[in-house]
């Protein structure tokens, strides 16, 4: 059974940083591309960042230059480093692997 467990969300002021983690089980992690999506309260789920099994990355336009996705295959973990956070980054962030499989989500709130 595939499980994706996110952590690291919380409340942060504008301009602050957070790092999200997603630990995967039930998959051959090193062979899978992984992704982060987010869903604000009133809009559809959108791609934040993607990392291939070869380490190639792709970002949504709104987070380019501020967010960085990375992976540690030895820990079956994918990370999302989020810098210079803005109120519009407020959303539930979901970890994704092909299947599709989704984590339970972690809330990120950017507010002063």
Please tell me about this protein's structure:
The chain is mainly beta. 0% of the residues lie in helices and 51% in strands. The strands form 2 sheets. Strands 2, 4, 5, 6, 9, 10 and 11 form a 7-stranded mixed β-sheet that branches. Strands 1-3-8-7 form a 4-stranded antiparallel β-sheet, with no helix packed on it. It is globular. The mean pLDDT is 96.
Report the mean per-residue pLDDT as an integer: 96
Helix content: under 10%
Taking all Cα atoms into account, the compactness measure Rg is 13 Å
Question: What is the makeup of the main sheet?
Answer: 7 strands, mixed
Low-confidence stretches: none
The helix/strand series, from N terminus to C terminus, equals EEEEEEEEEEE
Number of strands: 11
Kindly name the structural category.
Answer: mainly beta
